[in-house]
């Protein structure tokens, strides 16, 4: 393989572009504080993790032993004994959510999936692909599910086997659906625990909550059936990936035998990335639990400083207690485009990640938000131009 000088030049330009924009993301939750250079040499090989990492197949160039360790780490983190669970390294949060919904649909083929209005858009794709009946439930202003409406809707539908898609950190507001309240409402309308499925979409917060004190319920200890977490968000990865973990007896129902590689497969893809399990492995081996805690604490502390700075300057910004997502009213298009802020409807957010080391790095974005939304902006908007703020 040889690239022409022109193509080499294009790659060089793209390299420079990546270096310039490496830390662009204040609106999207991709951590950029990683260094996986110890893994670069594995890009010389076609590592393929097709099938179950627990079953040695005939395709020997796999990273199963690393994937096993990754899944054991997450089983412990999410409070389920490893032998009672099974999961794998996915292509990202969406695939993990799809896997959870697939298990649910196999368990309750006629069940209706209930998801909140603030659920990530990918749930719509999953519903279509898996052809699951689904109902959208309203949210409270803080982004949490409306638990009463959930119960009322299930009763109205006469649904005996609801599939609950709970948000453990919504995309825009970082809201966490209260698992205890969901369970309580279902019990109150006469639906026993064995008659419903509970999936946790913990794309971002799944790697925050294990490292904070007094975390809300989100794990298998709280009786979820499956959980999906993105690898390229709070963990950090050069390639999108994630992990999904579920109760083992639910996964066993969907396994298929693959004779030509002498393996068993219960994943969504056929061939699977063998490099990203190495990335996840290096990430979990590269930090102690105390270091994960400290990394999380720092992000939460800076997020709180951003809220306070914005509030102090007249912007009604807020965040949920265990969230690194700072929510505020939508600023001007110029501001959200300049700083790549995620914006939806009336709200925008910024997300504090481990590569943000201090408030200082965020001065420019804070300045622009305050210019658009602070008291001076309100004054400009409400006064006739001739009188604007001059008094
Ligand atoms: C709450 C939530 N769920 C799922 C996803 C999808 O994750 P991924 O982009 O890793 O597929 C996202 C992505 O932003 C998300 O915020």
TrEMBL record:
Record carries keyword DNA damage: no
Chain positions found as N6-(pyridoxal phosphate)lysine: 233
Top EC class, one word: lyase
GO function terms (MF aspect): histidine decarboxylase activity; pyridoxal phosphate binding
EC annotation from Swiss-Prot or TrEMBL: 4.1.1.22
Any single biological process term in GO: carboxylic acid metabolic process
Family annotation (Gene3D superfamilies): Type I PLP-dependent aspartate aminotransferase-like (Major domain) (3.40.640.10)
SUPFAM superfamilies reported in the protein's UniProt record: PLP-dependent transferases
Cofactors, names only: pyridoxal 5'-phosphate
Name of the featured protein: Histidine decarboxylase
Keyword Translocase annotated: no
Keywords (A to Z) from UniProt: Decarboxylase, Lyase, Pyridoxal phosphate
Family per similarity comment: Belongs to the group II decarboxylase family.
């Amino acid at each position: 393989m040889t690239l022409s000088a022109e193509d080499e030049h294009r790659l060089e330009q793209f390299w420079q572009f990546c270096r310039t924009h490496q830390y662009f993301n204040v609106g999207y939750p991709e951590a950029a504080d990683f260094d996986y250079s110890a893994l670069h040499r594995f890009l010389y090989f076609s590592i393929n993790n097709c099938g179950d990492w627990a079953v040695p197949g005939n395709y020997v160039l796999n990273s199963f032993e690393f994937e096993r360790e990754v899944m054991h780490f997450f089983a412990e983190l999410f409070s389920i004994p490893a032998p009672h669970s099974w999961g794998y390294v996915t292509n990202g949060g969406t695939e993990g959510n799809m896997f959870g919904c697939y298990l649910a649909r196999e368990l309750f083929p006629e069940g209706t999936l209930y998801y909140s209005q603030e659920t990530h858009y990918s749930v719509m794709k999953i519903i279509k692909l898996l052809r699951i009946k689904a109902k959208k439930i309203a949210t409270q202003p803080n982004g949490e599910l409306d638990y009463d409406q959930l119960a009322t809707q299930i009763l109205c539908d006469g649904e005996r086997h609801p599939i609950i898609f709970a948000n453990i950190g919504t995309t825009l507001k970082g809201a966490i659906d209260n698992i205890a309240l969901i369970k309580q409402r279902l019990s109150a309308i006469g639906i026993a625990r064995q008659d419903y499925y509970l999936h946790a979409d913990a794309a971002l917060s799944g790697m925050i909550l294990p490292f904070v004190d007094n975390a809300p319920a989100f794990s298998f200890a709280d009786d979820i059936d499956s959980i999906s977490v993105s690898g390229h968000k709070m963990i950090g990865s050069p390639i999108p990936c994630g992990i999904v973990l579920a109760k083992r007896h639910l996964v066993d129902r969907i396994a298929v035998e693959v004779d030509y590689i002498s393996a068993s497969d219960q994943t969504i893809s056929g061939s699977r990335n063998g490099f990203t399990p190495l990335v996840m492995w290096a990430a979990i081996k590269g930090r102690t639990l105390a270091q994960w805690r400290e990394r999380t604490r720092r992000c939460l502390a800076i997020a709180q400083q951003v809220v306070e700075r914005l509030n102090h300057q007249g912007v009604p910004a807020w965040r949920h207690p265990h969230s690194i997502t700072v929510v505020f009213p939508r600023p001007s298009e110029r501001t959200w485009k300049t700083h790549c802020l995620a914006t939806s409807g009336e709200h925008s957010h910024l997300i504090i990640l481990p590569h943000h080391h201090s408030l200082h790095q965020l001065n420019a974005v804070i300045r622009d938000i305050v210019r658009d939304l602070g008291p001076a902006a309100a004054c400009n908007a409400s006064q006739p131009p001739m009188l604007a703020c001059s008094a």
